[in-house]
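pipeline: protein-struct stage 2 | run 1193 | SDR family oxidoreductase
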Amino acid sequence: MHRTLPLAALVTGVGRRRGIGAAIARGLAEDGFDLALSFSDDYDRRVNAEPSDVETLAEELRALGRRVVLLPGDLADPEVPPRLVDAAREALGPLGALVLCHCESVDSSILDTTVESFDRHYAVNVRASWLLEKSFAEQVPVGADSPGGEVIALTSDHTVHNLPYGATKGALDRLILAGTRELADRGIRTNVINPGPIDTGWMDDDVRASGAAQTPGGELGGPSTVADLVRFLVSERGSWIRGQLLYSNGGFATPAV
């Protein structure tokens, strides 16, 4: 059954205009979605060494005629995820899509990861994602007449020397994909995207060259390549793709046979 989703979306992790979340927000805005954008200025300053510039992105999206609400918050606090969904719905009406681009990602390994760091990664990458998915589902009515919804999360295979990030991304995959069956009575479909390495400002020349060399086409994808797939999945044309972990990485690290 095809369902026309409400044209309002909550996108998390949209702190920087050059990030994946920002590219997804632009694409959804072009497709007619009003947007609630969640971000953490503390994370951007702490990990990305630059402040959030989401206000500038919001002005750009409003120029397209879209309603945009900005929702700051630390997702390590379990009270924040449901509050974000409530605020988004209050501002925009029923939500048709939830796109999880947020993460805690601080490099560390098996021998030097601290309990504090591991727990924060789990709180942000796993617990907050579950609470967001749960709160999103609760605002979608049950039944054949429900407009349904789409939940999409971004994942990664990067675990070596990025242990708590990679381990918690594995848990994220499972809890999101479970939604396709558990939330079927609400018409909610769920998918996970693994985009491979995307340069959002963290790569140097050596990392870019190495990543490109491991991709059959000899180049890396950008934030817009991730946004293109998200736009398809939330569209009616993508509605039959459900419960999938999709590798949209240009063939990165595909074995030669």
